[in-house]
Amino acid sequence: MILSHRRLLALLAILALGGCAAVEPIKAYEGPARPKAELAIVESAFERDWVSVADVQIAAVDGVGYPGPKYEARMLPGQHRVIVKGTSVIGSQKQEQFCAFEFDMARGCAYRPYPPSYPSPALLRGAESEWQLSLAMQVGVRCSGVSADIRVPADCAARAAALAQRRPSYQTEH
Hints:
The chain has one domain. It has two helices and eleven strands; from the N terminus they run H-E-E-E-E-E-E-E-E-E-H-E-E. It has helices at residues 2-20, 121-124; strands at residues 26-27, 40-43, 46-48, 52-61, 64-65, 72-75, 78-90, 93-105, 109-114, 132-143, 146-157. Strands 1, 2, 3, 4, 5, 6, 7, 8, 9, 10 and 11 form an eleven-stranded mixed sheet that branches. The radius of gyration is 17 Å and the shape is globular.
């Protein structure tokens, strides 16, 4: 029992170190950098407590994938499709899912997606590696000091490849 507790603490320490590193935000638009007040921002987070670790990273914006840990994406206001990768570790069990959502994002607003709980084994019916669900996902919205939670349509799956991506309208250099 002590050995598994030590493994859990070691895993938490490793994940915590990975979550603390400064990571450049994604610039998902053409042209020179713009002030945050002119952009729509999607932000995610790394969180941990004594029992679990939750890491939500931005995996793609408008069909362009971004490797490595990315916790903020800056884009021009308008319609955008974002894919987030949610990883949770509870005890020794690691679960990973990808959720895609799309809606019209406003200038000067920050959006924080909260991927749903991982599907239960009863729902998965033995096809855990290939599952896909459509549902309403909670997104926290903060604009000019006012905060609210909204629900947006989202597709979640065990693999990012299961989520159809549209082609980007332009190529960016990152």
